Amino acid sequence: MLCGFEYKINEGEKSPFDIMDFHRRIVNRGQLWEQSFNKLIKQDLTSNKIAELANVSRDTVIRIKNRGHLSSVQLKNKEGLMNKQKLKTEYYKEEFKKIRNIHAPI
Prior knowledge:
The chain is mainly alpha-helical and 106 residues long. The chain has helices spanning 31-42, 47-54, 58-66, 72-76, 78-102; strands at 6-7, 26-28. Helix 2 crosses helix 3. The mean pLDDT is 76.
C-alpha cells in the first residue's frame, strides 16, 4: 500500500530535502498519515501532544481539527461543502432582509 504523500517540487530542484520551508509544499499527507492522525485525535490527546507525535505544528493540528477530520477524499469534494456554506449564507441573508423590512423605519 502506498502512503499517498504528495508535494510540489519546482523545475530544477532535485531533492525535497534541499527545499527551504518544505512543509509549505505539501499537497496531501496521504491516507496512512490521515489514519494515524485520526487515531491520535480519538485518543483525546492535547493539541501539543498530537503535534509532537504527528511531527506537525500545533497550529496545523488545530486547523485540521477545526475542519472536522476530513479525509483527503472528502477534501477533494470541497464543492459540496462550499455549496452547503453558500446555501446557509443565502438563507441568513434572506432572514436578515425579512427582519430589516419588518423593523424598517417609517
